[in-house]
Amino acid sequence: xxxxxxxxxxxxxxxxxxxAPGTARGELVFTTAYTGYEESLTDPSYExxxxxxxxxxxxxxxxxxxxxxxxxxxxxxxxxxxxxxxxAEWLESEGVPAIDHLDTREVVxxxxxxxxxxxxxxxxxDVTEEDALEELAQCKAMSDHTDIxxxxxxxxxxxxxxxxxxHDVALVDCGAKGSIVDSLxxxxxxxxxxPYDASVEAVEAVDPDVLFISNGPGDPANxxxxxxxxxxxxxxxxVAGICLGQQIVAEALGGTTEKMAFGHRGVNQPVLDxxxxxxxxxxxxxxxxxxxxxxxxxxxxxxxxxxxxxGVDGIEYDVITRQYHPEANPGPxxxxxxxxxxxxxxxxxxxxxxxxxx
Length: 358
Hints:
Elements: E1 3-8, E2 13-20, E3 22-31, H1 37-41, E4 49-53, E5 57-58, E6 77-79, E7 82-83, H2 85-93, E8 98-100, H3 104-114, E9 117-124, H4 129-137, E10 158-160, E11 168-173, H5 178-185, E12 190-195, H6 200-206, E13 210-213, H7 224-233, E14 239-242, H8 244-252, E15 256-273, E16 279-292, E17 297-303, E18 309-314, E19 319-322, H9 338-352
Parallel strand pairs: 3-4, 4-6, 5-7, 6-8, 11-12, 11-13, 13-14, 14-19
Antiparallel strand pairs: 1-2, 1-9, 2-8, 3-9, 10-12, 15-16, 15-17, 17-18, 18-19
Helix pairs in contact: 7-8
């Protein structure tokens, strides 16, 4: 059996079965999702993290590229109770270490009790506990990855749906899931995907009907370029955001964010809409949250489990953001109407525009 070790912050070392070789380090987190492992593994928001699946069997319906959210696996390593050969071989082909035959109940309990933590991973025929501990010693805190956006963004602008007749959306790519683009294209808009550090001039060249800040990994305070874009355009252009995007919008408009103990990661997070009283189930993947929306934003939706903000709307600005993932691939699809609400802001703004003189 291939040796495999997980060195946890504090010095405790777990031993499992190696399924894909290599060494790695990152923030140890868990997801409660019982389906959608392909979507999770290709979600850019897992960059610089080691992903633990709480569901015991991962891989029971194979690996299909059409389910991917990006063109590569993003977690630095993967832990599970049991991985099928399909998933293990996929991870090995991606160069991502993988370990199973672990008591993932214990791992999840450790994270819930102590919070997301640094860890080191070593998998291979000749690796030792010391190799995993060495990786742990070199692991940085998530907030110290100050330019993590550069690892997950497009290098140059990309346009989708050029022939569509709808609005123009400038999507600032801080690590956007592919399903966000798909959800917008399904509504006949043209999506201009811009790098996470795009300039004001680059956005002005698009002349967007909506400025959309995507999901992504890391500390929102480190996305200074995206924060600056929200400040520059919010008075004249509707602004939307998902996940990290909500946090960036809050940072830009005078709110504050903070790191959560272990975050929300799964496909069954209940969210309460404060106006309607309706509860919907949502897909989530985040380790930071809005702690104070500030005076320009109001909380409209909260997490039923811990009351953290899940929806934030503008008070005097055209702003709508969601902490969860309305595109919700692989599901549930309770909140897809978010994209209609976003485009309704653009419709309203267009209807208020004063026609130019002939």
